[in-house]
Amino acid sequence: MTATDTRSPTPLSGIDVWIFDLDNTLYPASSNLFAQIDQRMTEFIGERFDLPWDEARRRQKQYFRDYGTTLRGLMTEHDIDPIEFMDYVHNIDVTPVSPSPELDKALERLPGRKIVYTNGSCRHADNVLARLGIAGRFDAIYDIVAAGYVPKPDPRPYADMIQKHGVDPSRACMVEDIARNLVPAAALGMTTVWVRTEADYARPDHGGVGHGDHIHHAVDDLIPWLVELSGSVGK
Ligand SMILES: [Mg+2]
């Protein structure tokens, strides 16, 4: 970052709105909830189009690549009802996620508003936040329905989210495991935190994004980082 860069990130002590991705960010990727959702998506497509598993799987991954989410592909190409789809795929067992009193405490101490911004549904977010024991720490959930079914990293819902929730991006920080989803946040002037992952699709070099200026902080494990941060800037 050079001295002339007008997008130098705001120090974390100056942040008053925290925007957290949900899946694989607020709980570890090792909980593997997405494997269940992924499986339910394949089942949905297989049942809907009467396809064998392998073909349903191939189609699902094609939609994800072409449209950013499987849902977007199904809506665009087949006019699928998004509520029906989400109710089906988010009907999963969240017990692999462990309740986290540490995370709850860190969020309580961290000053400022907190928003969950997810490509999933409110119902899924509510389930996971309740399981983690942190539901009471968030002021709002901005889900895929609020976003008009336009997923991250399309820049339009980011602009809509900050407008709807009165967020000043120069005083906001976004925390996310999929590096490319931080590109629009940084472009708006937010400070960004990438929760490191080994998954190829989430890494900064995926899709030619590069190890660019859109990642201001990178952390291996959200909870110890947040505990330390909330201890230094918190109440
Ligand atoms: Mg995520």
UniProtKB/TrEMBL annotation:
Keyword list, A-Z: Hydrolase
SUPFAM superfamilies: HAD-like (SSF56784)
Presence of the UniProt keyword Hydrolase in the record: yes
Source domain of life: Bacteria
Matching Pfam families: Hydrolase
Gene3D superfamilies associated with the record: 1.10.150.450, HAD superfamily/HAD-like
An example Gene Ontology molecular-function term: hydrolase activity
Keyword Mitochondrion: no
InterPro entries, per database record: HAD-like_sf, HAD-SF_hydro_IA, HAD_sf, Pyr-5-nucltdase
PANTHER family xref list: HALOACID DEHALOGENASE-LIKE HYDROLASE
Protein name: HAD family hydrolase
